Amino acid sequence: MNDINSLAFIALFKNACEKCFTHKMVQALSETESKLFYNQVFEQTGLVIGWKSLKNYSAYILNPSHAKEENPSTASLDTLARYVLDAPYITEAERKNKESHYPYWFQYKEQWLKNKKPVQKKKPVKGFLIIAGLLFLVLMILLLFFSSKKDKNIAEDFHATSEDSLQAQGWVLQSKDEPYWNRRNEQKGMLSLFTLRGDNWHDSANEPGIKNFLLRKISSDCFTAEVHLQNFFPDKEWQQAGVLLLEDTAFKGKSLRLSLAYNDFFGGFSKPKEVIIQAITSPGNGLTRPEEIAHVPVFTLDSGKEDLVKNNLQFSALRIEKTGNQFRLLYSCSPSNNFAFKEAATTEFDMHPKYIGIFALKGFVNDTTVIPAGFTYFTITNNDCEK
Q1: In whole angstroms, what is the distance from residue 330 CA to residue 225 CA?
Q2: What's the rounded Cα separation, in Å, for the pair 109 and 130?
Q3: Is residue 211 within 8 Å of 177, Cβ to Cβ?
Q4: Which helix (H) or strand (E) holds 292?
Q5: Which of 29, 5, 30 is nearest to 17 (CA)?
Q6: H-type alpha helices, the chain
Q7: Bridge partners (DSSP) listed for residue 167
Q8: d(Cα 257, Cα 281) in Å, to the nearest integer?
Q9: What is the rounded distance in angstroms from the CA atom of residue 197 to the CA atom of residue 22?
């Protein structure tokens, strides 16, 4: 950055920190403070700057001679300027289409050059003790809010899919497949996972494993989890996508998998190929035979009707309701995104999952086409367990 841009960036970052924390930055941001700052910027602007980048910026600004020199992108500068200037909420896609010239960064820099001081709304001074008390109260409320949001009720629309953003929201990526993971944004407004070779239980020749498996911890034994998919049309052997409950991340404990899947296996009988809702439990402990607890044909793939099936699979959703040892499994498939859920099965299963994940896979087959599964929404809500 040239001197003017560098000085304007430093002023902008200090201004943004002061807006977030209501006091001037006097030391480099901690990890907790950086994540809080990240969430504040994202919730107000709709745009993402990774918390690690914010942490590094603060270290550089306060100790330029000791920290690595930082050179933020114009997009990041515009995001900070939007936050400081209270710009309207916007998504990355909308900014790229309508405001790719990054107007708020240049507006901020122009005002800064005129005033030689950060652009910030003035706040009345009410005394050190009042300000300190209000600061403490605000920080406690924010920490409780974000802690509650992460540990209890989660809602994710996958508009921000950078690794920093997903990690900040509590997601963990397992078995990363770089080429396909780099394509996770190719369908706008959603997270694309691909039906790669893999499965969550082993067979005689393969160890369990799901590539680009995205999972997170569960904080309650009773919950409702829901995932939405868009334009996912499995039409080849074992292609499927859905949600997976696990006792451990190594696929050794008990598990329950609910998925939208393709099926053409009928034990030698001749039947139309089908798209199904399938639910499978695995007992873990080295036992190799899972149990199919739900097999609901949603559509048959009769010749010439593929386009009709695709239309009816524009929007699909899966839901798991867990109360004690009872699991209620539901699904929805429709050309519109507000179709009612139907029950696939209710079962008793002595399992206490610690993790929940979303996935796409095709089993241990090599010749099936890889297709994307577009995840548009995920939520998990903690419920009170019935006594």
Answers
A1: 10
A2: 33
A3: yes
A4: strand 291-300
A5: 29
A6: 3-21, 31-45, 51-62, 74-84, 92-98, 103-115, 128-151, 163-168, 178-181, 306-312
A7: none
A8: 6
A9: 50
Contacts of 223 by beta carbon, 8 Å cutoff, 6+ apart: 321, 322, 380, 381, 382, 383
Q: Are strands 255-263 and 240-246 parallel, antiparallel or unpaired?
A: antiparallel
Q: Cα separation of 68 and 59, whole Å?
A: 8
Contacts of 8 (CB under 8 A, 6+ apart): 108, 109, 112, 113
Q: Which amino acid is at 220?
A: S
Q: How far apart are CA 331 and CA 112, in angstroms?
A: 54
Confidence (pTM): 0.62
Any idea which residue has 């074992």 for tokens? 238
Please state, in angstroms and rounded to a whole number, the distance separating the CA atoms of residues 361 and 200.
9
Convert the pLDDT of each residue in 334-343 to its tens digit.
998 878 999 9
Q: Single out the residue of 24, 83, 19 nearest to residue 48, CA to CA.
A: 83
Nearest to 172 by CA among 324, 354, 335, 10: 354
DSSP 79-143: HHHHHHTTPPP--HHHHHHH-TT-HHHHHHHHHHHHHSS----------HHHHHHHHHHHHHHHH
Q: Which ranges of 286-346 would DSSP assign to H, the alpha helix?
A: 306-312
The Cβ of residue 168 has, within 10 Å, a number of other Cβ atoms equal to 21
pLDDT digits (tens, 9 = 90+) for 13-68: 999 999 998 888 888 888 888 888 998 899 899 999 998 999 899 888 888 776 67
Crossing angle for the helix pair 74-84 and 103-115, to the nearest 10 degrees: 70
Cβ atoms within 10 A of the Cβ of 305, count?
12
Q: Which residue has the tokens 């000791």?
A: 66
Q: How do 372-382 and 191-194 pair as beta strands? A: antiparallel
